[in-house]
Amino acid sequence: MAKVEHKVKEPLIHIVKRSRITIWKAWLIRIAAVALALVVSGIVAYLVTSENPLRIYAVIIDGTFGTSRRFWGMLQNLAMLLCVSLGVTPAFRMRFWNIGAEGQVLIGGLACAACMILFGDKLPNAVLILVMIIASLAAGAIWAFIPAFFRANWNTNETLFTLMMNYIAIQLVSFFTYKWSVPKGSGQIGVINRTTHAGWLPVIAGKNHLLNIIIVLVLTLVLYVYLWYSRQGYEIAVVGESENTARYIGLSVKKVILRTMLISGAVCGLTGLLLVAGTDHTISRETAAGRGFTAIMVAWLAKFNPLVMLLTSFLIAFLEKGSTEISTTFGLNESFSDIITGIIIFFIIGSEFFIQYQLKFREKEEK
Amino acid sequence: MWAAFIRRAIMQGIPLLYGSTGEILTEKSGNLNLGIPGIMYVGGIGGVIGAFLYEQHASTLNPLLAVLIPLLCSMLGSLLMGLLYCFLTVTMRANQNVTGLAMTTFGVGVGNFYGGSLAKLAGSDVPSINLTATSSYFRASLPFAEKLGWFGEIFLSHSFLAYLAIIMALVSSFFLVKTHSGLRLRAVGESPATADAAGVNVARYKYFATCIGSVIAGLGGLYYVMDYANGVWSNDGFGDRGWLAIALVIFAVWKPNYSILGSILFGGLYIVHNYIPNLDVSGQELFKMLPYVVTILFLIVTSIGKKREAQPPASLGLPYFREDR
Fold this sequence. Notes:
The complex is a heterodimer.
Chain A: E1 13-17, H1 23-49, H2 53-65, H3 68-93, H4 101-119, H5 125-154, H6 158-179, H7 210-229, H8 231-241, H9 243-248, H10 253-280, H11 291-301, H12 306-329, H13 336-356, E2 357-361
Antiparallel strand pairs in A: 1-2
Helix pairs in contact in A: 1-2, 1-13, 2-12, 3-7, 3-8, 3-10, 3-11, 3-12, 4-5, 4-6, 4-10, 4-11, 5-6, 5-10, 7-8, 8-10, 11-12, 12-13
Chain B: H1 2-28, H2 36-57, H3 63-91, H4 96-121, E1 128-130, H5 132-138, H6 149-156, H7 160-178, H8 180-190, H9 192-197, H10 202-228, E2 232-234, H11 241-251, H12 256-271, H13 281-287, H14 290-305
Antiparallel strand pairs in B: 1-2
């Protein structure tokens, strides 16, 4: 009997994991993705406004670089976004999905505002600012510690836990904005210590946000060194890679998780302080403005490298500013910027695939 | 008053029920879709766009079309979102949390953008659109409900979308527990490698579960606009209900039939501040955190108890790539 040969049909495209990719090639792919995303956003903006696409891009650039005021505004947004991103990074390097940054920022801001309101006329300014710093860092750290504690001891799902903590923080802020509202019952706190400026972070060199920006830059370097060159940073990476390996080499996984989340939350709390005492001088539900969520994307796009985050947070801050400018110039709804941000992130997320994997097409069969 | 409270609680709960049923199906396939809030916005605005265009173009409204067009538009919108999520996370193997959060940003943006733009088209000063005519068809309920006292008020006074939500939850429950495909779907969520070895097409199950889940969740957005809000779309009006739906998934321990009662409880907790005498505005804000507090407590209790049925699917949030094993 003749052997029947089964012909296996080979699929047209194979997906193969790349063994390694040169850094410049990886960045080339990412830049191509951003460029493609900008083209698509341009097309979307064109479809909505029917304006000359080149003019749309001009408006985006003008939105950031048009005036020095706009540029400083963008730098301030960048700094705040970067600060939250730095906050989530230690947790993420440990593969601890802290998506509660929004709440940690808010609760830090709330602690800061509380100090400004309650002790504004009782303490000398230097002492007051010190108290504010301690309170905000502690508040953020506690907010992150709670889910970490349950995760470390009972393996409670941290993604869902931290997510829920956000809304508790938001409602707490709502509660206190009504409690402390000026005038009573308006639901808004208004500028805190408007006349005395008690607890306001100092303005250096006449630039409103310069201090914030410097603090965040220093923090970026500190965290980079901490994560890349310190023993604790190494421990974080080991726990992130495999908890079993960490146990095997004698690390206390529990201790690393708790310590890292305290740091993560404290940095988020610091962002709250910078937003309340250094920028807005008030607090509301909108103080964090979704940065807690955007920061996750910023950190992820940078592969959790604080130095690369300078670049990715610039990209997002620049695009947000630019698309806000599009909406005001062409009379669109301000939510347009969310759509553009979404599109860009989709493209960058997609590009990671081509960095990690390779497509191999079916080779022509030989006759 | 009790009957009125329970009725309002059910109305608050229905969008959450749709969202959580959709999310349970999705999570059972191992996809943690944090884009659900965005998808529900898209589902809502999809219906609004459909209804708006139909109301503008038709001289007289045909009741059947007035319901069918928004329904289909809503389903199409959320289906596209589901496909996008699957394409990025299953085909492109992207990180689920990042993709989901980006989808929420995008979806809420789409909702508010079109909401605002349509309001401008309709010549309204405030960013809201009024579709009372279409809404009246959606809200049609049984005519004899009013005559049956409290029983009618609680159980019979709702619109068809509310009953559909409950049917969907029951059907999903049945599907997950009693059918062969449901078993395979759960296997994919628990251990995709094992399911793959057993000959289950993992990618196909993930795609179907996530897309169908998205469409169901999107209907929650539609119910909210057409029913709960009487056909008035206002920007950000849907609020944080999408996240509440995700919370409900935990509370219902990944069982759609449990989430029927859970949704009514959450709905009740969401509005209970309106029924407490002498409560000032700040106190109301404290009450609004109740559903989240309850969820966290529940999450803690179930994880300490380590009851196997109460745990999330084992591979939740993890991508699957056959060659990575």
